[in-house]
Specification:
The complex is a heterodimer. Helices cover about 30% and strands about 15% of the residues of chain A. By secondary structure, chain A is α+β, with helices and mostly antiparallel strands. Chain A folds into two domains: about 20-100, Roll (Ubiquitin-like (UB roll)); about 110-175, Orthogonal Bundle (DNA polymerase, domain 1), CATH 1.10.150. Chain B is an alpha+beta fold. Chain B contains eleven helices and twelve strands. In chain B, helix 9 runs antiparallel to helix 10 (about 285-300). Classes of the chains: A alpha+beta, B alpha+beta. The complex binds flavin-adenine dinucleotide (FAD) and iron/sulfur cluster. The site of flavin-adenine dinucleotide has 29 residues of chain B, from strand 2, helix 2, helix 6, helix 7 and strand 8.
Chain lengths: ~180, ~325
Amino acid sequence: MNHLHSQAAEDAAGQAHNGSKRRSRCIALNINGELHEITVQPRKMLIEVIRETVGLTGTKGSCLSGTCGACTVLLSGRPVLSCITLAVECEGKEIRTVEDLAQGGKLNALQEAFLDQGAVQCGFCTPGMLMSATALLERHEKPSLAQIKKGLEGNLCRCTGYNAIVDAVLQVSDQGVLPVMK
Amino acid sequence: MILYDFDYERPGTLQEAMSLLRNSGVDARLLAGGTDLLPNMRVQNLKPALLISLGAIAPMPPQAGEDGSIRIDALSRLADLENSDFIRREIPLLAESAHAVGGNQIRQSATLGGNLCQETRCLHLNQEHDYQFAAPCYKRGGDCCYPYPGNKPGSCWSVYMSDTAPALIALGAEVEILGEEGTRSVPAERLFSGNALTPLLIARSEMIRSLIVPAAPAGFGWGYHKSTLRGGLEFAMANMAVTLRLEDDGETCAAARIVVGAVSEGPLRASSAERKLVGKALTAELLSEAADDASDEINPLPHHGFTRNYLRENIRVYLRRTLTAALERASGGII
Ligand SMILES: Cc1cc2nc3c(=O)[nH]c(=O)nc-3n(C[C@H](O)[C@H](O)[C@H](O)COP(=O)(O)OP(=O)(O)OC[C@H]3O[C@@H](n4cnc5c(N)ncnc54)[C@H](O)[C@@H]3O)c2cc1C
Ligand code: SF4
């Protein structure tokens, strides 16, 4: 089912000056299977539209320069950095955010594995980690340790020391790692 | 968000993109993956008035020509190159160098053409300037240099950090460039001016269309290394690519290319070290001497906190290992 989410009024206020009205474009973004019609200036990054216009705040912004991976979303299946991707570049593509993982209010197996391994501490890197891991697992059913490390290399975590995160990916891909938390 | 307004076009064909680039009458830039351009616009190192997105133009898959050369579309994503079985088999050096760039998310967006056309970098330049209250440096049109205030006025020591450029130069790749007068073709090493203020010899009205990598001859071997602190999501301290070709006797060197990047305004070839190898039977000792010579010849610029002496030693050690790997591949030791 497609929901149309119009946002023209909200934007009209922001467009009063600088000729930005002329530059604004009306685009339709497919986010987690819902179509959102929005008016957006070219200078807006995808993360701003996801968080501020659409209101999905699961995706986190941290470095805003492509160096930490917290803002990772899937763009037509590819993990990309929504803080250095223009929203206008994403029309016609399928965008998936961390909100798409849980179904019917129930965490998916990867998210459960993160909990089982204590792979979440402050939690700020977690949405990005989950999206990178999702992309990895869609490519490799049972990724090797090297593939996991390379697959998550673009996501920084300052709390867990990474091992628990790697273990969560090994656990969910059924490679002999058992839950440590119960 | 980028702190100023700009126009945006998303042409459906290369012809349209080229005509926008030529006729817009404003400072226009091509937007490929955006992973270099957008961070530079965010800190206002670059302020183009128009972005011409190449996002609606699909890259052609790599194609083998009749002479065995391989044509790679400049719009190819680095992740697609590193994961392509064809490229891994036919041009493993290119796959390896693409794999070395940034982190996975960067490589999923970044293109080969954008990688070649990236801006030079320095510790001062790639910062947010808006709250630094600092006068612009030479590279930003000002009249000072922060890290190297004692340098000759007007000289900028920002470094060119592409991980793929040294590999393409070592492979002898040709760059196909679309411009006002049609297509021109230059060897990859001629893309660089050696001046960090204007590092690339490509006009703003031109576009890299494709890279043509010649067929690997018999007795061919390669080596690649990127020196980093962490081993991921990081620009190079130094990167190096080597290609060797052995005569039919399996030991005499017929040709050698040694290219070192990330330590200068553009990638550098160690020509005298190359000459030292050609015509000789390659031994561990000779490779080690060539690495010593190259590290003297290259004269790295200090950058990102690494001193010239440290970089010299880094290049000396890793070039020796890279040359050794290339020789092993050339003589069939490792694949
Ligand atoms: C966190 C982070 C880490 C990074 N790490 C590395 C690294 O380790 N190694 C590395 O080499 N780079 C690195 N980069 C820089 C950048 O991501 C890469 O160089 C990337 O390959 C640039 O490609 P792009 O397609 O995103 O280029 P864009 O940003 O789209 O373009 C860069 C420049 O090239 C021009 N351009 C693009 N395509 C063409 C073309 N076909 N013809 C002519 N001009 C063109 C654009 O107008 C622009 O001026 C990193 C960037 C970030 C943010
Ligand atoms: S080295 Fe170049 S970019 Fe860096 S501060 Fe000096 S002039 Fe600016």
